[in-house]
């Protein structure tokens, strides 16, 4: 983990489950030097939790938002200190 990494949590709300959102997020995330996961939440939203360089994390969230814009009604983003707990980027069930 790089010393200037952050934790970037994005919650996507809308018709984001059952539309290939997590698979799309995984495919996009593999193009960026980030670690973390994407998961469906019980309330019907999708959570994207990534750690990486601040600008890279923002670019990833916007890339996913751009790709899946037809399904997203709302997006919230929170940034905090990276924990270094992830070794890769995965889909969580």
Automatic annotation (TrEMBL):
It catalyses: an acyl phosphate + H2O = a carboxylate + phosphate + H(+). Keywords: Hydrolase. The active site is at residues 22, 40. Its EC number is 3.6.1.7. It is an enzyme of class 3 (hydrolase). GO terms for molecular function: acylphosphatase activity. SUPFAM superfamilies: Acylphosphatase/BLUF domain-like. It holds the Pfam family Acylphosphatase. Residues 7-93 form the Acylphosphatase-like domain. Belongs to the acylphosphatase family. This is acylphosphatase.
């Amino acid at each position: 983990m790089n010393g200037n990494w952050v934790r970037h949590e994005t919650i996507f709300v809308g018709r984001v489950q059952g539309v290939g959102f997590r698979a799309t997020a995984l495919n996009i995330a593999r193009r960026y030097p980030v670690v973390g996961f994407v998961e469906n939440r019980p309330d019907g939203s999708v959570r994207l939790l990534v750690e990486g360089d601040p600008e890279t994390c923002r670019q990833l969230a916007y890339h996913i938002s751009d790709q899946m814009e037809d399904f997203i009604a709302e997006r919230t983003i929170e940034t905090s200190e990276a924990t270094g707990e992830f070794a890769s980027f995965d889909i969580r069930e």
